[in-house]
Each structure stands twice: as C-alpha cells, then as structure tokens.
Amino acid sequence: MNSNNNAQTVSTHLRPIDRDGLLGFAEKGRGNPENRGTNKVHTVCEGQYRTLSYVADHDPVVVDEPPHLFGQNTAPAPGEIVLSALGGCLAVGITAVATWKNVKLSRLELFLEGDIGNTAAWGAGGADRQPEQMGFQEIRVRVLVEGDASREQLDDIVQHANYFSPVANSMRNPIAFDIALAD
User: Fold this and answer.
1) N or C: at which end does the chain have fewer Cβ atoms within 10 angstroms?
2) Residue 52, class by beta-carbon neighbours within 10 Å (0-12 exposed, 13-18 middle, 19+ buried)?
3) 144 vs 20, 91, 108, 121, 126, CA distance in Å?
4) 174 or 151: whose pLDDT is higher?
C-alpha cells in the first residue's frame, strides 16, 4: 500500500476571536463614532533608567536602556516598547479584519524596525533639535501572514488593519499632549 494515497493535509488555525462580539462592537462604533476609551498607566522609576509601568492588575511592564545609553539593559528600551505596542496593535487589527472577512489565519508574525534619533540626549545638553527631528524617523513593518486566503486578500487585510490601527495612527498623526507636575 502506498502511503501517498492516504496522505492528509492537516491545517491548524490561530485561536479565533468572537466574531459575533466583534460585529457587535463594530455596530456600537457606527452608532457612536465619537466614543473614546481611556488607557491608564502608572510608571515608577526604580533608578537609573529602569522603570515599571503598571497597567490595571497586570504584572508591570519593565523598561530600561542599554549600557551605551547609561541603562542596565535589564529590559527593552522605551522605543522597543513603542514598536512592541505597534506590533501588538497591528496584530489585533489583522486578526479582527481577517475575522470580519471570514478568513482563518494559521500564522501571523510581525517584524518591526525603527530608526530613532536621540542626538539631543533627551534635552540634557545634546544637539539642538526640533521635536520633528527626534524620535522615530522611519518605521518598517514586515508581516508574515498565512491563512485560507490568497496573498492578495491577505495583503488587503494587512493594509486595511494598518489604515485603521489606533497605535499606528497615533504615531502618524499629531497628538495633543498635556504634561504637567502632579498635584
């Protein structure tokens, strides 16, 4: 007996989200497009550049700087955390759009790189720079996605998710900041 005649293709999919819940959430957004949620984080500096950011009842997100930037290298740097947030948001969006379009994903990985400028040394006597000259100057994201759709359909899902990504749009668009000493 030839084993090739009995070959089976086994396909596994990523754990799905609740499609009905997603559609209900989308309907609420259509009904009240100006509605906003609020994210809250409490960040505490342990010393040097190591910080702990507390979000709800989760373990703290630890942030540090590498030795060449005077940190202890005990955790990702702030810019790396920003790229992590972007990667997470894009992954959420890709998953949501795929679910909306009834596409089952079997693999989703994002590779992010960002060229960041800090020649101003955080404003501590470095180069004289304007805000638009500091921070990320270019970000590149490559998405490895597989599912039960064509490459063109998967690319459409990725581009759609990018267009509607709250974190990507926060990075692309100017945001009003209110930074002051606490009472």
Assistant:
1) C
2) middle
3) 26, 11, 6, 35, 39
4) 151
